[in-house]
Design goal:
The protein is an alpha+beta fold. Helix content is 13%, strand content 24%.
């Protein structure tokens, strides 16, 4: 039953859209039910969002935003922090609202385990670099839903990941769930749209 529920969830998560080519930063993986995967600096197992710089140059995230509300795309704003080419960055969605570029960053919101909007927004405050609309699917404890990009951040083979890999490359698994989900990608791929320029 769990694999069936997760397989259906894949179709929903693939409704995420955004620029998935090698020109931007993407939401590479996230978890709304972190119970043991990665602790923050306070020792809390907070929700987390992993970004990946898929471009061929460093990106200063100053003024970029993360939001869980489609009607408030500037909900949390990044400080001036540079994400190097091929680098990962984990932002905790803890509600602690911390934006020190020299420490761990925490949004002023948490992620809903029931599923909700999630977007990475460009500095203009209106253009999504990457977003899950209308919502990502409900999550189970320590079961991540990645963007489905493999290799990381590239517009290559889309897949899902059962093993969380914050701050590290996504690794596809030859599980029955992953294989079933990959078969569903053909049906859902048309819903994964690049942002129009």
């Amino acid at each position: 039953m769990r694999s069936v529920n997760l397989s259906l969830a894949v179709l929903v998560v693939l409704l995420g859209r955004g620029r998935t080519n090698a020109e931007t930063v993407v939401i590479n993986e996230f978890m709304a039910t972190n119970q043991s995967t990665v602790a923050d600096e306070d020792g809390d197992y907070s929700d987390w969002i992993e970004l990946f710089n898929a471009s061929e140059s460093p990106v200063d995230l100053n003024g970029w935003h993360l939001s869980d509300r489609p009607d408030d795309l500037t909900r949390w704003t990044f400080p001036s922090v540079t994400l190097e080419m091929g680098q990962y960055l984990v932002v905790f969605a803890s509600g602690k609202d911390r934006s020190d570029p020299l420490g761990e960053m925490h949004t002023n919101f948490r992620l809903s385990t029931d599923g909700e909007y999630l977007g990475l927004i460009l500095p203009d405050g209106i253009t999504p670099a990457n977003e899950f609309v209308p919502a990502y699917p409900p999550q189970e404890p320590d079961v991540p839903f990645a963007l489905g990009l493999f290799p990381d951040g590239m517009d290559g083979n889309r897949t899902v990941f059962l093993t969380p890999t914050p701050r590290a490359p996504n690794v596809p698994e030859p599980s029955s769930f992953a294989l079933l989900a990959m078969g569903a990608l053909g049906l859902a791929a048309c819903a994964w749209r690049k942002r129009r320029r």
